[in-house]
Input
Amino acid sequence: MEKMQQIVGRARAAFRSGRSRPLEFRIQQLKALERMVQEKEKEILAALKADLNKSGYNAYSHEILGVLGELALTMEKLPSWAAPQPVKKNLLTLRDEAYIGYEPLGVVLVIGAWNYPFVLIMQPLIGAIAAGNAVVVKPSEVSENTARLVAELLPQYLDKELYPVVTGGVPETTELLTQRFDHILYTGNTAVGKIVMAAAAKHLTPVTLELGGKSPCYIDKDCDLAVACRRITWGKYMNCGQTCIAPDYILCDPSIQSKVVENIKATLKEFYGEDVKSSPDYERIINQRHFKRVKSLLEGQKIAHGGETDEASCFIAPTILTDVSPDSKVMEEEIFGPVLPIVPVKSVEEAIEFINGREKPLALYVFSNNKQLIKRVISETSSGGVTGNDVIMHFFLSTLPFGGVGHSGMGAYHGKHSFETFSHRRACLIKDLKMESTNKMRYPPGSQKKVDW
Amino acid sequence: NPYAGLVSHLRASWLSGKTRPMEYRVAQLEALGRFLDDKKQEILEATELDMGKPSFEAFFSEILLCKNELNVTLNNLCNWMKDEHVDKNLVMQLDSAFIRKEPYGVVLIIAPWNYPIHLFLVPLIGAIAAGNCAIIKPSEISKNTERLIAETLSCYLDSDCFAVVTGGVPETTRLLENKFDYIFFTGTPPVGRIVMTAAAKHLTPVTLELGGKNPCYVSDTCDVTNVARRVAWGRFFNAGQTCIAPDYLLCTLEMQEKLMPALRAAITEFFGPNPRESPDFGRIVSDKQFRRLRALLGSGRVAIGGQTDEAERYIAPTVLADVLPSDPAMQEEVFGPILPIVVIANMDEAIDFINARPRPLALYAFSCDSKIVNQVLERTSSGGFCGNDTLMHVTLTSLPFGGVGNSGLGKYHGKFTFDTFSLHRGCLHRTMGLETLNTPRYPPYTQQKLGLL
Output
């Protein structure tokens, strides 16, 4: 497919022209993006509703508010982020200029996911533009309304050659990945992450992989269960559980399991009313394939709450499973749905051992009144990120790098971390052509005297 | 899988947590310092046997620079290990938000033959400082140094956590089948691709320190004597077998004429009238490399040097004049004591020439006019840049050392090594109280809540 080669080639030629480099240009493009989000808010919310039945509130707060915040932060800070950074000099370089220069990498590829289809394209795009790159944008075809909208809108607001949008499914993405890029940021699953990195390896292209996994949530006996369960309920069932950093499963002492269930049930009623299906604030599973996948995880499980499904509307009720066995199917893969297994553990040691016996997750959660216990769980485990006594929230602090480790990913972004991800940090040492006498020490002929010095 | 046992042994040590306390890391680093002190003579002898490395050069690059990195690390480790507290937004004012530096686990360091101690030891310093276990794979081509490392390193480091694996391509291929938590590779781009492809199977993050042809632009306004010395020093150090050596010169015909006697004078000053007898000039590491380099001598015309001796693997410090872009010396990284000069009409042509080629690891520009140096810097891209000198930018540990594009990805030296081998984990530790502040985020999403947004 010549098409991909042409699109990427045009982006590269546009980058080589140098016009994406001046700060004024980058800020102008970011401002245009800001205008786009503000002017086309209705269309964006409508696309998100069509794709995921996202409520206006959730769509606005998760996908639009965050993007506007990131845009404002980036435009404000860009001059300071992009400024050369002088470094500490040693004796031999005291009279020289030594600094780290931030430079664009070239042509960046951003591959989005379907669960937060707008923000997962926009946030990387903002960082890549800010760093002075050309960017090829590939939204997920699964969230087809948002993909179509992004393909329509970006060319209306941004430089068409520098920031092209490529649509399509697996064949198109595979073809795109044969082209040479200077950085690839991929959000999606572990299996495809491996494919992306292998394709990148052919061109020695650095990658940022935002993948997933089973994010554990440990609830200590010593904790305010009502508060903990409210926060967990919010994070688990938003977007119908289709959030990469949703608490995937709960670990807690068997003695508090039923209280946890009661509290979550009460919160669910508070959030979505008696009839969840008719709540305008509860989303749907993205498509039939994922509906069937999530539904099959319920087989053979003790359903403490929920379990109702409706295939026609891809509806799965907020569901809680109790006394779940670590070997069951629901504990094998990332659930990515509104099903919350509770796995009983007798102690925090057992919880830590359980977590460490599995792949490193994208997020880890621990609830306790005991600060020391929280510190211990953090210190004795690994994960991309952590929130203690809440869920999801570390995502919203842009000064924290957001990314995974091991099977949950590599690299990080958000805020300044995006700018750095998409920049080349070039070491620069500028010396004087004079002052040659100081160099004499290093020139041959070598002598014992020089070694001793 | 012949190395599975070794890797799982190291992984068990890693899981035991013994590499994590600062005291342990300091003890291992101090042991590395003792290794350099105790084995200094053996290191000088081994590198002399391997590639005729002059003792002054070996002392400088294999001992002194390594001890400097050790000192910087030991002096700063405590600070580097500390949690980095980050700015918080309004909602999180009462929370604790920080970046936790964590080891990855079991890392693999693959080193090349040209600076066989330095190029495994400096990455190892960072790997240990960051709390990892490590497998070191020295190059089989520098076989005397390989033997020294394999036989003596275990006397200094904890053999439960640090191991040396020897062998050639088949052994390295089998080693790469195992899962590592980080891979640090120094070598050529083709092998870099193989390493990254192997890493992709396990989603292992990598740093690749590769190479390329490092251009050296000499403007018409410069102090010819000093330029000649600095360029000759950088080119002929280690008989040219240096990844950041000035690979080829770009200058006008007039400057080529002026430089030639100055280069001749510098070579004589450094190595005497017969460099073959100088103890300060090295040899080529292998017959294969010797024959490869000898074939490059047909490029342009031999203006200085050109003598060879196959038995000794000696190639005289050589300057080739009037080299054409199509000549053999311009088709691959030289990696030997041969300096091709390519004549260009002016600086713009030099910059176009550089930009038409893959981005190099280092780039050099010489001029008395700082505007010219800055122009070359601004209009090109490279891993690092040094104005008015060669090699020196990598001796400043506060500057990141690494490539871009074909010359590599990632960076190290000083704190950058520590950061390379650390996961930067975003942590948010919230308070269980103040739950009312969270109410706006919970459903049901009334008109009022929407308005609040």
Observations:
- Chain A touches chain B through 104 residues (CB under 8 Å).
